[in-house]
Specification:
By secondary structure, the chain is of the alpha+beta class. The chain folds into 2 domains: 63 residues, Orthogonal Bundle (Arc Repressor Mutant, subunit A); 129 residues, Ribbon (Umud Fragment, subunit A). Helix content is 18%, strand content 33%. The chain contains 3 helices and 11 strands. Strands 4-3-5-6-11-7-8-9-10 form a 9-stranded mixed beta sheet, with no helix packed on it. Strands 1-2 form a two-stranded antiparallel ribbon. A hairpin with an 8-residue loop joins strand 9 and strand 10. The two termini are 39 Å apart.
Length: 216
């Protein structure tokens, strides 16, 4: 059974976590001493040895910045600073419109996936949905793919969007608007576009990335 961390050890772990987020490289022992207001580097080293023994960090003693964070102070596995947790809110049709429930908070998510941070472009509100259907296949979006979206209420012509139709059906298409009419254009010659009055369409998000699993 692992020992509960002391207040000082929890502070060290949280300092390392914050330092990594701010600088994208780990702190030195002296950084930790100063940041946590610890009396000496030997006290820092003593606590780092305990944290390594308990599985919170990994150290390369021959390197001054050789600390790797494995868990946060609550014991949860730490994510690399180039990975972010993105909530997945159900499925979206890339064929005929499909009703999916709204999801306003992360607690409503079906699952959470770890994705490269460049896909989110620094936006903490980014979310994902799974694709059903093949109507966007020529845009390299296939059935079973995960599309990553940033929340948006409007779009430019040509954007790939999640669009809500008539208040309850959501589809994935390219967006075009002209003279008060919206065309939701598939990327598949075998699928007809959806043409509706602009006041019947609400953009819910714009696609910023696509993730494909080899096991789809």
């Amino acid at each position: 059974m692992k020992k509960k961390l002391s207040t000082k050890q929890e502070a060290i772990v949280e300092f390392i976590k914050g330092f990594l987020e701010d600088h994208h490289f780990p702190p030195t022992v002296r950084d930790i001493q100063a940041g946590c207001e610890i009396s000496s580097t030997s006290v820092v080293d003593y606590n780092l040895r305990i944290l390594q023994r308990e599985g919170y960090i990994r150290r390369r003693s021959e390197v001054s910045r050789g600390i790797e964070l494995l868990k946060d102070s609550s014991g949860r596995e730490a994510r690399p600073d180039n990975v972010v947790a993105v909530p997945v809110f159900g499925s979206i049709a890339a064929g005929e419109p499909l009703h999916i429930p709204g999801a306003a908070t992360r607690s409503d998510a079906d699952e959470v996936v770890d994705l490269p941070s460049f896909l989110t472009r620094g936006n903490p509100e980014v979310f994902a949905v799974r694709v059903k259907g093949e109507s966007m296949i020529d845009a390299l979006v296939a059935d079973g793919d995960l599309v990553v979206l940033e929340p948006a209420a409007d779009a430019r012509n040509g954007d790939m969007v999640a669009a809500e139709i008539n208040g309850d059906e959501v589809t994935l298409k390219h967006f075009f608007m002209q003279n008060g009419t919206v065309t939701l254009q598939p990327a598949n010659a075998q699928v007809d576009p959806i043409v509706v009055p602009a006041d019947k369409v609400q953009v819910k998000g714009k696609v910023v990335g696509v993730v494909r699993s080899m096991y789809n």
